[in-house]
Design goal:
175 residues, 4 helices
Amino acid sequence: MFENAFNSIMGSDLAAFNYTGNDRKIEGMYKGRPRNTIPDGVFDLVRDNYYSLIVGAYEIPTPFPKDSRRYPGVQFAEVKAMDGTLYTSSNQGQLAAMINSMHTNSGVNRFGGQFIIGTTSDTFISPSIYTLGASFGNSAINIVHLKSQYRMISGAMQVRFSQGWFGTTSAAYIK
């Protein structure tokens, strides 16, 4: 149920990026060995190229894209309903394998990407996961940690996810 609520919320909030729940296996690597895994969700990477104005020696970008390039299903999301800390080694290297697999895509390899981890409120992400995402230099993979919040409304559980104090997602109901 927790995964379904997360996928419902992300499907709404990331509709422009074609977010969908996933059951497709991906090839990854963990500690130099193949590690296949299945991300809970996938979404597109969209790269916009903007027009610029040349003013003297300065090139000023405009808010008008001249073209866009879409890389379908190359960014991943994972849901963990657990307490404690997630490490690169958690679940036999599942998260590390997903991050490494994302980076093998030409779009993510060139422009970077986002890996979303949705968890219960008492779960922490170890620095090793953030370090792995950042280790790809200019094409770093940004790790986004969304923590769940629950409340009961008329006998149904409302779930939403937040990132820090200000970033809150839409909500889903679990009966």
